[in-house]
Design goal:
This protein is α+β, with helices and mostly antiparallel strands and 120 residues long. The chain has two helices and four strands. The strands form two sheets. Strands 1-2 form a two-stranded antiparallel sheet. A two-stranded antiparallel ribbon has the order 3-4.
Length: 120
């Protein structure tokens, strides 16, 4: 010690280690939720801008999270993430609930599809 974690934070004592580890735990929880139905591919590094963390990933089938078999529907992923506990107190920019809220005025996680399939 000291060293920088992968999110760019300085780990220099037990308190900063626990902080970095709790951020990692939240990241691992999101990855596990995504992986319930498929193995995510090409997961990008975490980005952080204006208090918002973001990343992208690919899946083999655009229907994997679809409730009704519709292209680019992510209803299943959104529903499976609802109410999942997360660790808070990690310098959130807004008041956070200790669970994921996927819809409504208190929403604290967003998913969106990016269609990058190639037509042949």
């Amino acid at each position: 010690m000291p060293f920088n974690d992968r999110a760019g934070g300085m780990v220099q004592d037990q308190r900063t280690w626990n902080y970095a580890r709790n951020q990692q735990r939240n990241w691992e929880t999101l990855n596990q939720l995504i992986s319930l139905r498929t193995q995510p591919m090409s997961v990008t590094s975490l980005g952080h801008s204006n208090g918002v963390w973001s990343f992208e990933f690919e899946v083999e089938s655009s229907l994997v999270y679809s409730e009704l078999g519709q292209e680019n529907d992510i209803t299943v992923l959104v529903n499976e993430c609802e109410g999942v506990p997360m660790i808070v107190g990690l310098n959130e920019t807004q008041t956070q609930h200790s669970v994921l809220i996927t819809q409504g005025s208190d929403q604290n996680i967003w998913f969106d599809t990016i269609n990058t399939s190639l037509e042949i």
